[in-house]
Fold:
Amino acid sequence: MAISRRQRAQYIRYVQYGILVVVILLVAFLADWGQIQRAFFNVNIASSMFPNVITVALKNTIIYTALGFGFGLLLGLVLALMKLSTVGPYRWIATVYIEFFRGVPALLVFIGIYYGVPIAFQVQFPPLTTVMLALGGVGAAYMAETIRAGIQAVPKGQVEAARSLGMSQGRAMITVVIPQAFRIILPPLTNELILLTKDSSLIYILGLFREQYELTKFGRETLSRSPSLTPILIAGLCYLIITLPLGYLSRYLERRTGGKKVSVV
Amino acid sequence: MSEICVEITGLKKSFGTLDVLKGIDLTVNRGDVVCIIGPSGSGKSTLLRCVNLLEEPNDGKIVVNDTELTDPDVDIDRARTKIGMVFQSFNLFSHLTVLNNLTVAQRKVLKRGEKEAQEIALRNLERVGLSEKANSMPAQLSGGQQQRAAIARALSMDPEVMLFDEPTSALDPELVGDVLGVMRQLADEGMTMLVVTHEMQFAREVADKVIFMDGGYIVEEGPAAEVIGNPQEERTREFLARVLDPTHHGPSDPV
Structure:
């Protein structure tokens, strides 16, 4: 029996829906819903986490992320300018930095700074400084490449116009190129902020006081005192409070800038 | 201030192995309008861009407003404030309003106060007929309006000489007239102007001197009526025939 092209497409679509339904039914029947509810949706445990999960944990996650992002953005900008420098050694140093910190796990950077810096420089940074250096140090490696791509995406004529008006190279960079570059790279930078939000959980290795807990540490600590995984679920939902709006913001900005793609190599 | 505004002697410029300017001598008197015409690739834009050192010459001497730009110790940023430049692609700063486009260099480079800079900017916007667009973003303007704003931006620095690099080539035909009108008005006010252009009518009516360039040399120069009306050189005649009556000529010979 010959079937037309259109009928074949129809059958394939039926099969796709069929597979979906089978998987959902399998999961629904095989999962122990009572157990899941006890494990993840214990209302008593959930309510015992409030308000501290917001007033301490969520707040600290935001603070750590903001510090890391702020420092990372600044360092990333410096690295991007070094990478574009005419001075060879600047370019090499920036390249080595970027390749190194992009290539090693953020956790190792946290450990390195937490244990390494006191040995190397005889100073013990407070946790806030450590998280700023570690999180920002890793973020800078990623952001540097994004910023460099953004700077190079600014049309050459903009610099020529600035120079023809008597601006020096540096003045043109600050007044004309960098503001335009940041407009171009706002969407990818927002993504970077989302990644840093999640990486801020790595601060757990620092040995924190209770009032310094962020979401993951707070969730794990609550978990150790309760027979339910509910704290993990609550912590996860709190991350979404931060990351979902950021993701939405990123897509909004991308639409507004006309979806102009910046190649980050 | 001498009567000579721009003096170029023995100017040579090459990009890699490509010699674009092969020895240019040119003098522009204060208040004169000089139009540079010629086929594409003849080096006319490069010549213009050398006059404010956007291109670094390989050899020769360029003196503008009694400052030798080719002196290695010259303060080029300061010299450029007296040389206005208008680009084919406008190059308005896309992140700033029209008004801020006109004030940013005044404030950051000339260190004028905000109020003074704005007054000067608004005065120049009025000159080019764009007063009501002061708070628009460049992207909201038509090409002709953008180019007039770019002219006003250059004028706000109080330049001694204005360089125009094919200012109407990127415009829709019906918008060309607005920009040429502003340029003609500038010429009437006595501005010294160097204009790379394909607008022969403008060159004929406004230019004090027309320069025909080809192959990196100045082939012919003189009053507009002479160079355009009665060209002496064969290459000039051929070029003008093509430009003035493009439909009646076959494809150009391979060089």
Observations:
- The CA atoms of residues 62 and 68 of chain B lie 6 Å apart.
